[in-house]
Amino acid sequence: MKDTNRPEVSVVMPAYNHENYVADAIDSVLLQTFKNFELIIINDGSTDGTADVIKKYDDPRIRYYYQKNGGSHDAINKGISLAKGDYVAIINSDDAFYCDRLEVLLHTAKTEGLDFVVSAVTLIDADSNTITDPSHPWIMGYEKVKTTYRNYNSQLKAILLGNYTISTSNFFIKRSLFDEIGKLRNLRYVLDYEFAIRALKRDENKFRFLVDSEHLFYRMHGKNTILSDTEGAYNEDYELVSETMKHVFGEGLSPFLDHLREMTFGIKAGSGTYETNLTIKKIVKIYIKPGTKLFKVVKTILRVLKLS
User: Into how many domains does the chain fold?
Assistant: First the structure.
């Protein structure tokens, strides 16, 4: 017998030092057109006024927990463990949902039999102003990622050219998927990217990117985690993409990737030159036919590592 009191969707919010944004995040969930949800907030050891803001809310749908700082993955995983719904949506405490996000994504997941749905996102600044300037670097990069997705017949190969999920805030997932492939891993910068790739490896047909439908406000501000250490983010990105390339294109690619990595570390250490960068480009053209999808993927890695 179905439990009519049990929420169909559990929204998990990891919160850390976002006293200026967390109210917007909470309000965006409470004002959803879809009503059968719970909001699980995990305060991950905030040292500012985040807790004070959260405690002002008196809504039976909110379940609030405090823990010592364990990182984003730990806070999200605790929320998932506490979830009662058949579906889990994640929202970071500095982002915001469109008011119809849960309704649209739940409908899509159920009607198409999907385990994982993400939408297109709208970029906003620290003051919640929408950023639409087509010359903005982030907008340019995101539009390129979306174009790549549209042009590929493989969602897994497309994501190697750019993380179109953008953020864990964009995750809408059937809870049983976590039982099958595990929860989020302890990665500082690419935990969203890694989980999405893991899900795509399992079954691309159970995944959908609503590339032409925006249902999330993604906030860019001075304290975004990925902006705090771009070199660390690049390193995690490289490890993830190169390992996935081996899975997609075969282990025969391993020696080339290992050699590329060694040369990359030499350049990062200051021993590389412009001529060395040109040599890497020549090696790519010799071993991989220009114009192929694999060539484009490797070129993307070089660009991420700022070697192309």
Answer: 2
